[in-house]
Amino acid sequence: MSWTDYRSAPAPGTVICPQDQVQGVQALTVETEKGKFPLLLAATDQGIRAYVNACPHQYLPLNYRGDQMLSADGTNLMCTAHGARFDIHSGQVVEGADCDLDPVPVRVEGAMLVIGQP
């Protein structure tokens, strides 16, 4: 599934938050006239990565049972509901799920992080 398939998917250019507020891994909700879109942001050494905050195993948020979604070595995002792991840079499944996280393109405009083009 692509992030654009979600009914609540925000339009390109939608403001997410100030770029300097993105540290570590955090879950947030982007609210627009389409509804609430669950987003997961990860600040990495390769830039900010964004994914739909829905584990493809059961479509629960990765932070369903807590906010510790980053592996101890900092390389994987983890689902707190059942332990599935995903590569932080690509969203590809490492173990515990049948498919990858849905990446969401983001870019920086001025000091703000915004939704990018699909």
What amount of the residues lies in strands? 35-45%
- Per CATH, the class reads Mainly Beta
Q: Characterize the main sheet.
A: 3 strands, antiparallel
Shape: globular
Spatial strand order of the main sheet: 1-9-8
Q: Kindly give the count of domains.
A: 1
Describe this structure in words.
- The structure is a single chain.
- Strands 1-9-8 form a three-stranded antiparallel β-sheet, with no helix packed on it.
- It is an all-beta fold.
- It has a single domain, classed as Rieske [2Fe-2S] iron-sulphur domain (Rieske Iron-sulfur Protein, 3-layer Sandwich).
Would you kindly provide a brief summary of this structure?
The chain has 118 residues and is mainly beta.
For this entry, give a set of tags.
118 residues; mainly beta; Rieske Iron-sulfur Protein; 3-stranded antiparallel beta sheet; 9 strands; 0% helix; 38% strand; iron; Rieske_2Fe-2S; iron-sulfur; metal-binding
Outline the fold blueprint.
Blueprint: E1 15-18, E2 25-32, E3 35-44, E4 47-52, E5 76-78, E6 85-87, E7 93-95, E8 106-109, E9 112-115
Antiparallel strand pairs: 1-9, 2-3, 3-4, 5-6, 6-7, 8-9
